[in-house]
Design a protein that fits this description.
alpha+beta, 12-stranded antiparallel β-barrel, about 25% helix
């Protein structure tokens, strides 16, 4: 019996080792395939925001030409131009449970507030708010909603955009949509999809971003070499903040606080 037990344990350990090896081999192959797919992808310039910058979170953060961005700083909450090192924007988490994050431009001027509406292991919904209405007659966030988000009551804040994301073990898909009007009930909005993103199956971070209407690739993100955080390459004419926030929801817990301080997008 003892001999049988020892043999059985040895057999099970061998089987487990084989399964782990095959899993790692599979992930490696998928990761290599994802890396090649992202590397070969060609980003296409967009002209929509250049014609109407009011559709952007901040007109100063619309890419004027092809460029790349990366995280910088010990707090990992500042995005900079990968070529020049110039600051693009910084995120600062606020609230008792980091339920919202403030987005500041290079001059530390507030340009938006990101609020966690829903958060789960496999999905999340974020609202991006601004100080000005997104459409005629839009109501500002109620004091009740502000309190839930850890924002001071009386703050004038209007929903500008919504990010919805769904995540798997190593993949994810998300949509960035602009608020264009009131929804069917008071808690909903009429939305227009602008960007979509897909995180590909990989050990690192590999993702492609597309315009929702044309399905053209307008940005791509990847971790390279020993880097722990990705570099994002943008086409000209895209909302860099929107795309970075969208990409960040596909990893981590997708909350506003995580967006402000997470080392990985």
């Amino acid at each position: 019996l003892d001999t049988f037990s020892e043999s059985s344990c040895y057999f099970l350990m061998e089987e487990r080792s084989t399964l782990v090896y095959r899993l790692l081999e599979y992930q490696s192959k998928m990761g290599n395939a994802a890396a090649k797919q992202v590397e070969s992808a060609v980003v296409v310039d967009s002209s929509t925001l250049l014609k109407d910058d009011s559709l952007s979170i901040a007109s100063s953060l619309i890419s004027k030409e092809k460029m790349s961005a990366k995280l910088k700083g010990t707090k990992m909450n500042t995005w900079v131009d990968a070529s020049t090192g110039n600051i693009l924007y910084t995120s600062k988490s606020k609230g008792l449970i980091k339920s919202h994050a403030i987005i500041l431009d290079a001059e530390e001027k507030e340009i938006a507030i990101v609020v966690t509406a829903k958060k789960g292991m496999k999905s999340s919904t974020l609202y991006i708010g601004k100080k000005t209405p997104s459409f005629k007659g839009q109501k500002a966030a109620s004091d009740e909603d502000l309190k839930k988000a850890g924002i001071e009551e009386g703050t004038e804040l209007y929903a500008f955009a919504v990010i919805d994301a769904k995540r798997g073990l190593s993949t994810g898909k998300g949509t960035y949509s602009l608020v264009t009007g009131e929804g069917k009930d008071e808690s909903d909005f009429e939305l227009k999809d602008v960007y979509t993103a897909e995180k590909l199956s990989s050990m690192g971070y590999q993702a492609l971003f597309k315009e929702a209407e044309s399905e053209s690739i307008i940005a791509k993100a990847a971790t390279k070499g020993v880097a722990m955080t990705p570099t994002i390459e943008f086409a000209a004419g895209v909302d860099m903040v929107a795309l970075i926030l969208l990409g960040q929801t596909l990893a981590g817990d997708g909350s506003a606080g995580a967006l402000a301080g997470a080392g990985v997008v």
